Amino acid sequence: MEFSFTKYARLMGRFDLTEKENPKCGWVNSAVFIAFQGTSISMTAEDSDGQDYVEIVVDGVARNWINLKKGVHEYVIEQGLTDGEHTLEIHKRTGILTGSIVFHRFSLPDGGSFLAPPAAKPLRLEYFGDSITDGAGIGHPHELAEAPHLDDGYMSYVGISARMLNAEYHTMAICGIGVWQDAIGNRQGLPEHFSGTLGKGTAPWDFPRYTPEGIVINLGQNDYSTPIDEEEYIAAYIGFIRDILEKYNDPYVFCCVGTMNNNYLASVNKVVSHFNQNGNGKVFVVDLGLIHPEVEGWGGRYHPGYQTHYRMGRELASFISAKTGWKMLKRPTIATECVF
């Protein structure tokens, strides 16, 4: 059975659809969702640099992850499944600086059929941030700085909080970036990438394709890692939120602080106060605290590891739920059957 992205796939995240049957993504957590009937499934994809990793989720459960080789290659995603209906999700675990992926097709080598793609989740969120939001360093030994195979956007606080809220989620995150300046003081911030599908200098993003009800921003740790004019930071942050509010339909905005540093908390409070005092009560500060290394351990080079990300995700989801009334998913009450 011939596969068609326009007929059988649902995309999550910003994809360049210049070639509709070859969607291209770069941002972490970009994902493809499909449904099929059969016992095995393969994927043909093209990676720009050979350093990207994707999470494989079958029937709602994360099963494995694989490294995509540079160029166009076919990958056996799953085999030996029961002969019935299944769902497949392919999530980009690595960030936009690691590479981009062009999806070419899916195939059912042992026969079967593609079905209508799984329905989207009822809630839409969008996250903006730096390496923490990217899931960089999450699985690294502390002394290891660069290890894309141990980065993991899927299990970052972004993925955790979004799935706890049963939400779709887009993520725009760049390691080392800030609102006003980057980690070494260069005047470049994430807001300048907001209008591009894959960032600054790329095809314009078609904003009506995705209108989130909730925005999460976690930017400031890199701004404040080098000398900065606080007023410039505050002005840039306010301007970024204004741009977001102009594009979307009155979303909630959650301005996070933490967890590698919190020396910008006072500045973020001033940003949020600006909107609150001008009549917008849907903008909030979320203090996610600091890493507790004796309890949670470190990720790579002082980044949060899995334990910290889980805590961050749960605290953020709980805060959002309390402010909006959006329900969190409940834990299962029946154990998953273990089949070996």
If you compute it from the alpha carbons, what radius of gyration comes out, rounded to the nearest whole angstrom? 20 Å
Shape: globular
CATH structural fold name of the largest domain: Rossmann fold
- Note poorly predicted spans: none
How many strands, what sense, and barrel or not for the largest sheet?
A: 6 strands, antiparallel
Number of separate structural domains: 2
GO molecular function, one term: carboxylic ester hydrolase activity
Pfam family, one: CE2_N
Keywords: Hydrolase
Domain SGNH hydrolase-type esterase: 128-276
Features:
single chain, 340 residues, alpha+beta, Jelly Rolls, Rossmann fold, 2 domains, six-stranded antiparallel β-sheet, five-stranded antiparallel β-sheet, 7 helices, globular
Task: Break the fold down into its secondary structure elements and pairings.
Layout: H1 5-8, E1 10-12, E2 15-16, E3 24-25, E4 31-38, E5 41-47, E6 53-58, E7 61-67, E8 71-78, E9 84-92, E10 101-107, E11 113-115, E12 123-129, H2 131-134, H3 157-164, E13 167-173, E14 214-218, H4 230-247, E15 252-257, H5 265-277, E16 283-287, H6 293-296, H7 306-324
Parallel strand pairs: 12-13, 12-14, 14-15, 15-16
Antiparallel strand pairs: 1-4, 2-3, 3-10, 4-9, 4-11, 5-8, 5-10, 6-7, 6-9
Helix pairs in contact: 3-7, 4-5
